[in-house]
Structure formats: C-alpha cells, structure tokens
Design brief:
194 residues; alpha/beta; Rossmann fold; ATP-binding; nucleotide-binding; P-loop_NTPase
Length: 194
Amino acid sequence: MLVGITGNIGAGKSTVSNFLRAMGYHVFNADFIAKRLLLKGFPAYNKVVEAFGKGVLREDGEIDTKKLGEIVFSSREKLNLLTSITHPLVLREIGAIRELYKEDLAFLEAAVLFEYRWEKHFDKIVTVFAYRGQRLLRAAKRFGLKEAIRRDKFQLPYSEKLRKTDYLICNTKDMLHLRLQVEELVKALEETCG
C-alpha cells in the first residue's frame, strides 16, 4: 500500500516522514526523485537545460536547483514548463514504487499531490496541517520569508485538500503530540492494510 503524505509548505511533512522512517517504514520523497532526474545523464537534464538555458547550470555542469527554483517560482508559466518535463518521469517512478510495495506499507512525501491531481497514484492520502503563520515561520528558516510566501501562493488552500484526504495530521502543537498522531495513523493504516 502506497500512502501519500502531503501538506502546504512548512506544515511538517518531512518531520512526519522522519518519524515514519524511525519506525522502520520505507518513505520516499517526490522532490528527491525530481532532483535526481535533473542530474546530468538522467532523463530530465537535457530538456530542462534546453527549456531554461545554460544560466541554470553550476560550474560543474549540474543544474543549480536553487537557481531553477527561483526561476520557476517567479511565474506559473515557468513552473508549468518545468512540471511538464519532470512530472511524467516522477509519476513513472511513483508507479514503480507502488508496484514494489503493493504488499507492504510504504509512504511517499509529495507537496504537490493535489495540485497536480496525483491522487489516483496512491492507495491512501495523509494531509499534514499547520496554521499559515506556523508554516511560514518554519519555511522561512529554509527559504527566507519572501520565498516561503511566494511558494505558498502556488499551493492549494487546505479547504480544498481536506475534502480529498483520507487522514489528517494536525501539526499545531509540540513534537510529542505530532509523534502520537503518526503512531495512531500507522495503527489505522496497518489495520486497513491487513
């Protein structure tokens, strides 16, 4: 059973994923899959360089994902161009993971799961929720506040996500509370999985 983990920027998806890994579960990440596909010699590399120019390359010839992120999060059109290149390849990888773990419980973190209608690629979906102020403060530590706000604008509001989710984790309190919710989630999924 492949379970999708989603939520808006700074919600705590990676923290939930880390708890699951510590509990011994296989947890994958759509962003890591996409970044691997951008490496020289991998399927998306040439198409991305062709689409965005050599200005996205580092000195060693690899794609500078930070620079690419700044470009694509500046306009919906540029983001759509990148996703038209990477998402079919990411979905192929997700399909392979789902097939590999059809008898076991595995998780895949995907921030844009609902934004790009990936629901059908998962058996169950977990949404991690946090208030906007909490999320932006967390994300600002990683990206800076301006960039966190800009990226947040590209994500669906929780009102839409919650209508489509199977399980909700509220990351509005402390780590212990979050960990207990993850343990309850796993218990419920294990019962569903058989």
